[in-house]
Amino acid sequence: MNTLPNNLKQIALFLERLPGIGEKTANRMAFYLLRFPERDLKDFAQNIASLKAKTKMCSVCMNLTEDERCSICQETTRDKSVITVVEEVLDLLSFETGNIYKGVYHVLHGKIDPLNHIGPEDLYINSLLERISTNLKRSYQDGKKIKEVVLATNPDMEGEATAMYIRDRLKEVRKQRSAKFKITRLAYGLPIGASLEYADYMTLQKAIENRNEY
């Protein structure tokens, strides 16, 4: 590392701080950048420099955007009566990649994790409740009244705790507003192509609980 030019060394050290990147990989990436055309490097550097300044949260769903509202919230063909709650923006991207969902989202930017001192007040849960309460106050004629909130947090201990907390808060809102929207949780079970022999008991339990008529 000490034999590298200082600027190249600093770039490698920065890349090494990224998740999943070790010293050797960081060095290879730094050398790869060195072979880039200068124009491409300048564009890349400019995007990096303006990343923090240009990126902000959508005022509606807390997705990342450069505008007041993200492209999903601005899309007129979306079914705004269904809101799927996800932990992170990367979870939202997973739904969007497969083009399997036509509703809208709400991003929590984390999950309840007491061991790491993350409580409900550290997430965007209150903004979700305010968003739903505001929606329920209105009298919609165009099908935009909220009909369902899908809790799509991860199926680990913290994700389940977060889903249960939000479920209870949503039930309070539903009762206060005399509303009828559904609160649902993503189904979990055996993936396509899986073998029962290698499935753990929790996966099998979820598969049994979420079985459908065939």
Question: Could you give a quick summary of the protein structure above?
Answer:
This protein is α/β, with parallel strands linked by helices and about 210 residues long.
Q: What structural keywords apply?
A:
single chain, 214 residues, alpha/beta, Helicase, Ruva Protein, domain 3, Dna Topoisomerase Vi A Subunit, Chain: A, domain 2, 2 domains, four-stranded parallel sheet, two-stranded antiparallel ribbon, 9 helices, 6 strands, 44% helix, globular
Oligomer kind:
single chain
Beta-strand residue percentage: 5-15%
Q: Residue ranges: pLDDT <50 for 5 or more in a row?
A: none
- Binned, the helix content reads 40-55%
Secondary structure tally, helices: 9
Q: Count the domains.
A: 2
CATH-defined architecture of the largest domain? 3-Layer(aba) Sandwich
Strands across the major sheet, in which order?
4-3-5-6
